[in-house]
Amino acid sequence: MGLRYFEDFAEGETVDLGTFTYTADEIVHFAHEYDPQPMHADPEAARSSIYGGLIASGWQTATSYMRLLVDRIMRDSESIGSPGIDNLRWLKPVRPGDVLRARFTVLEARVSNSRPEWGIVRSRGEVLNQNEELVMQVEAVNFFGRRQRD
């Protein structure tokens, strides 16, 4: 598909964004930099936590989802930006070696009332592990440019 405009987002459409996985070292490195809680940054402390072992920061999962979203959808679209997210949930721990799969589903697509040259897309992003368990969910709103009309 070429450049994606607002009109190319159909309600109910789901796009597979790809997969990612983390090693223990990647989890610890991210945690030391951005979320140094013991269950993310210290494998020994994580073993004695309620998680029974090292888990990735939810923020790490969210940034990996965002990377796939940009690579698969946003980069080749008339994306104008986002006013934010409505909901972000981390539902299950992500462990080293988990194979995570991300997907993007269009919940609603409508023309902006105040800026008719823009479309508004409300979406749900999901990350599932290798057991098809939902580990992260996010709902967001994005603005996209509309096709030029002659």
Q: State the order of secondary-structure elements, H for helix, E for strand.
A: EHHHHEEEE
Overall mean pLDDT stands at 96
Beta strands, count: 5
The chain-level structural class is alpha+beta
What's the gyration radius in Å? 18 Å
Distance between the first and last residues' Cα: 22 Å
Strand order of the largest sheet: 1-3-4-5-2
Instruction: Catalogue the unreliable spans.
Output: none
Strand-residue fraction?
A: 35-45%
Can you give the helix content as a percent range?
10-25%
Give a short account of the largest sheet.
5 strands, antiparallel
Assign an overall shape: elongated
The total of helices stands at 4
List keywords for this structure.
150 residues, five-stranded antiparallel β-sheet, alpha+beta, 25% helix
Question: Your description of this structure?
Answer:
Helix content is 25%, strand content 36%. It is an alpha+beta fold and 150 residues long. A hairpin with a 6-residue loop joins strand 3 and strand 4 (118-128).
Give the topology, please.
Layout: E1 14-20, H1 24-34, H2 38-41, H3 43-47, H4 58-74, E2 79-90, E3 100-111, E4 118-128, E5 134-145
Antiparallel strand pairs: 1-3, 2-5, 3-4, 4-5
What's a quick, concise take on this entry?
This protein is an alpha+beta fold. It has helices at residues 24-34, 38-41, 43-47, 58-74, and strands at residues 14-20, 79-90, 100-111, 118-128, 134-145. Strands 1-3-4-5-2 form a 5-stranded antiparallel sheet.
